[in-house]
Prior knowledge:
The protein has helices spanning about 1-25, 30-55, 60-70. The chain is an all-alpha fold. It has one domain (about 1-70). Helix 1 runs antiparallel to helix 2 (about 30-55) and helix 2 (about 30-55) runs antiparallel to helix 3 (about 60-70). The radius of gyration is 14 Å and the shape is elongated.
Amino acid sequence: MFIVVLIVVLASMHFYVxxxxxxxxxxPGRSRRVATVLFLIPTALLFAGLIVPRVFDIREAAxxxxxxxx
Length: 70
């Protein structure tokens, strides 16, 4: 249950930062898509770093965990 609450809080924080920095400052088009991708990649790595070690062995999970935590 804790991991679900943590993911909701982290996702809300990332959404707020994306809204303030990407959505409100750029016009729809290529620059907004690039900014969105630049926000989604670290967010996905962070979530993968939290979930993958609980599902897979630590050796396989390390490849996704260390970039997510850095």
